């Protein structure tokens, strides 16, 4: 059975996808309501589809360009295999498909939720959460299926399906990184493009409709209202789907890469029942079981009472969520004990090889689960209705928009305190338990319930849309009240979901960062070198500028929308009386075009910067390992700053939103009950306008930015690490002689293919806890490297080792 | 003559102080106007003095507590000398005195500027800039005098006034760091306390006076108006004076520390005409000449025409500024060529010893001067009236406060792009020219004209006050118009001054960071170690939370002020008619108390975090060098994030301010001229309210935060680097034998005193470009270390070296 374990994640993914199909047909069988409702729903569906199609056409061009670039790299750089291009393309396609699928089911579920809300609240939850479940399982199933199939394929192609050595597996995983790169690239554009779309439409609709014309939200007389509802689907659904698809794949990949290094540290071979690749299979296995657990979790989400309030809906979701987290913990225990050797050797930088028991790996997964849970509570505290920070913003609204804004900004900024301490503690603890493999597995455990998280996240915008349809199709107030309950809960889950996303992105990026350092073969990232420090600064700046570009894009697109809505109000006769029909499609077109145009620059910034840092100094003949270290500094800068700005923006935006919402039920300011329409409320609305791009455009893009940056680094890694073919021609004498200070000589092939090989000869010094910098890199064709190693052996009688083996060999 | 060079900076400082006294008596001789003007001026003077006295009382307690802590450390930790306590106390006193003196002259100059403005604009500039000059020369003179005197004292105390070796000089400079620590601690509280004071009063006065009661700014009926004018003096004058005093001292100190390491890298001894300490004296010499140059620069600032506009006043300032920068460049060339050896050896981390010509050091100083100039232009672009970013914010104001805020935030964020690229380029270039010594000298050159910069900075708030006095004493409109011209120029110089301050802080922090790494003797800061990376995250978070605390403090204090002003309007009969007298002192008291209370928490955060990171793991028995590396990661995090947040906040705040100001002359929005009082203007006022704490409280505090953090690290450094006395008892065999891989053995005493010594034995490997990690730290009493080194020698026949020498000694 153990040897079949590699197929288990595929089976689990297929079960997830089958369950998804079943659930989908159930949702589609639900009543879609009357003609007007269907018409509105169709408008939204078509608008969303039109946007996605336009977006995918544009992204297809992008994929072609990147593929050509990758092919050229694969052709000229012997350490890169052309299969990475195929993996990249499929990663992009899978990611786009996941987003597209989610959007389709969401736009079909919204009207059915409205119809269900006519009967009862439990039914409305059942339908909307059903739609979310379809999306969640679809995304997670596709992610696990795609990643596992490609892994299997490459494992057979490069290694014949059996473990050979670390360097071969490195090539497998390096090529697999193309899949993740494809997925994450699409996610970036989907998130940013969708985020710009949704906020441009939202702000545009609100500013003219609500504020200037004084008509309610989602009023059918507002020309931008369809665009607004489309935005919920392309931003909050399709964008988020692509985002979590990318996260999921990147997390599992990073853990696999580090699992490969665990095997290397253990001597290059482990005798386990899983074909000797237990540590590599483990993260896939956790992901696979996570899908099954998510199915169980989604089944537990239900309410009975038709008079349920937000808190009861929230606890229904919490039950499902908590049960799945506990189940993941139990599963991790079983899988870790079963699949990993009882004790492993792991190389800790600066500390040498340490003995790590498999129980410590399990503890690392627990760290991940705890962080996932705690970050949600932290986020809820800073953004939740009725909590202290929100009440303070509400109070500060009484003295105007200025003080409301200051309070909201300060809340977002303060919220970085517990969040960052939590992340720092998690990094430290999971690393202390099981090194960077522990960090990666903490992220994997946290991400195991991605399907469940997505279901919880996606039901929010579905309910939001359902409310919009209820309003536009002029249903009884009770229908809107019911969807509003779901929508309110959805706002909270959206905020906590963002906390969860950034937590997992932080851990995943660190794991990718660790993989990068090992791939390139550099001796860590030392910020005491000025060029590395300079790049740390540059990296820190990129998330800030990225956020500004995204915000400006929203501003620009919203202004265009405002002009168009004003024009229609002015020019279409009878529009305010309901006799003239607004031109919805014009507004949809404006949002579509503006968001596609505006997503280019931030995307270029993200992809361009690491390429410039890697290749410009290379042209000037800078040492490749020095460049690799600089790029590492850049990656660290982007990660640290990106995490900070994500927390800041997400929480400030969420806090402003709920401060504004607080006025709906009335708030006590200076002893007086204050409601919607008051001056304080208007100030709170201004705060929410600022918060919108924060929380829905720039904030959630941060986690893709940091993951994509680290992935690009990982894909560039072999170019930087394997390019130094002049080493082979060096005239420097190479001598490794026995002496008291040298204890072990360690030969490892980082890359090997038909026309290229690279060996690293490291010398462990007498203290045994440090790897000496006396490290020799030999690269060139396989023959050249073999010859050089043979020469090494002949030069030194103490140099006894098997050159095809990456096991540490004792000198005498 | 060369041997007397050590006294030159003292002479220059005394010349500066004498010129200051002369200038001051000239200012005081000017007419202080009529009785009402004098009365108002006295109110401001007394309010400011009351605040400073209350602040200093509180800070005296702080100084006593820190002194006791430092004494305890000096007593228990053998590597720290008790004289650091004396240096700390004097640093604090000098800093407080500099701030106090600046505030006094400013509050005396304001009314004289008003009076001068009655006659002509050139006279008004002459008086206000004269006051600024007094302050600038006072601060710079005191800084150079204090630092040089203490250096001379310690040089004689520890070394008998002649060069002995690097380790003795390290103790001199380590003790001197106490002076800088004292200065920077006071600066932190002065900046934050003053910043809270000025904005609480400003926001409070505006919200009730301008917005609610509809009376103009500085109207004598507004009870908060005196507090507002006091705020300009305690925040923009006293706070800034203490800030730049601290920067100046820290910059010169950092360059001296790195100069000491240049001497070490050159073999521990250089034969120059400056007593063998040319590289250490150079930064002091540059500072000394800088004072004389600043005097020349200030003399050039004058205008002739009474009808001059802002641009002519600005170019008068620019002439003075540019001439002084060019003179500094020429001086640097002369001093560098004269004082430094023609070629030096400098140890570049990871690259080994390189030959550096003194011309390259000169190029590094040019880098500093260029950065100082360019960052001012960049800042002016993003915050200047009539520039594209400001026009965009103005346009976005037409759709309300929300879009105005988004545009302002985005402008601040985008402005990090050129600024950070500039800093990164400067770090890289100055390091490439002359290592970290080059980075430190770049900062020194940039800071050489501190006196001139301060004169330019201080004349702004003086003119602002002069305008206030004109309004309150009901002068002819022409008087206010003239002071308004000066005030407008002052706003621009305030923004560019902040850019300058953060640029110098960034370079200084890096130099301090480099000094820290060398002091502790760690092998760089490697962020591939998870605990170091975790601390990078934590460090990145601190400036964000610090800013939030400062902003919240302003919000809280402003709310109290609002309540008080409302109460007075309600309860004092005839106040609005001008027959009832407002209780100005109550408002002054509120600002004073609130700011003193609220500055505690940010201060605690800044000082507490590095102490917790250093000492808590120590209690748990963590390795000291590992802690030192973690603390280094923290310092890097604070620096990178602090620089980003400083640029973001300063520029966003400046941009909002000038966007609001644009409405005074009228702006073209959608083809219509729009003025003060329009809806768009109201939106711009809201933006300015948000920007106020950004640009005057949290933003400018960032540079003190990062410098203070690095200074605390530097003071802790010997504790971390010298505490490992268990090394001496280690049972590990220590052997350094001849082999092909070992080329040079390097013994260096990092610390030596009567009861403690520490030797680091490093081995340079065969490649010559790398220092091997085969590094041995021996610490304990001097006898123990001597014995161990003797043992080393006896164990290995190849180990030929003079243990009292830190010169690299060839093996065999």
TrEMBL record, chains A, B:
Catalytic activity, EC: 7.2.3.1
Membrane topology summary: Multi-pass membrane protein
Primary site of residence: membrane
Enzyme type, top EC level: translocase
Site (Determinant of potassium dependence): 494
Gene Ontology molecular function terms on file: diphosphate hydrolysis-driven proton transmembrane transporter activity; inorganic diphosphate phosphatase activity; magnesium ion binding; potassium ion binding
Keywords recorded for this protein, A-Z: Cell membrane, Hydrolase, Ion transport, Magnesium, Membrane, Potassium, Sodium, Sodium transport, Translocase, Transmembrane, Transmembrane helix, Transport
GO BP annotations listed: sodium ion transport
Protein function: Sodium pump that utilizes the energy of pyrophosphate hydrolysis as the driving force for Na(+) movement across the membrane.
NCBIfam families: PRK00733.2-4 (NF001955), PRK00733.3-5 (NF001960), V_PPase (TIGR01104)
Assembly and binders: Homodimer.
PANTHER family: K(+)-INSENSITIVE PYROPHOSPHATE-ENERGIZED PROTON PUMP (PTHR31998)
Family in the record: Belongs to the H(+)-translocating pyrophosphatase (TC 3.A.10) family. K(+)-stimulated subfamily.
Protein's name according to its UniProt entry: Putative K(+)-stimulated pyrophosphate-energized sodium pump
Native organism: Bizionia myxarmorum
